[in-house]
């Protein structure tokens, strides 16, 4: 029995070119798996778990009924992952404004009737890496300026992270 037969198959089972492609794919998949697990292990070793974090969210131009549906003590989640982001510890409300110009061309801010801006502060538990590169709350990356769809039992908002302490 020959190792490679007249059709180019190894032991008559598989073409040697197909075998090479399968080996390359397996090696690449293994390399990415090992690198990914190695980075996760390093991150877990370098993190400070369960550190208290205050996340401030900014929600623009919502109606009064939406503002009234949020109470201190409500728990908000990230809609995308379902992970708990934190509990409301502070709620600030202001009239929503829009930038416009007057008849002379000066920039002014006009109040939008029946619309409000809401600033929510959530108390969370999260992980901060030693290098302060990554901040995660329930495995959700949080950075100032990131837009997130958040929800409580009663309401869902598109919010922007306004501050992290």
UniProtKB/TrEMBL annotation:
Keywords: Membrane, Transmembrane, Transmembrane helix. The chain crosses the membrane at residues 12-34. This is DUF4330 domain-containing protein. It comes from Paramaledivibacter caminithermalis (strain DSM 15212 / CIP 107654 / DViRD3).
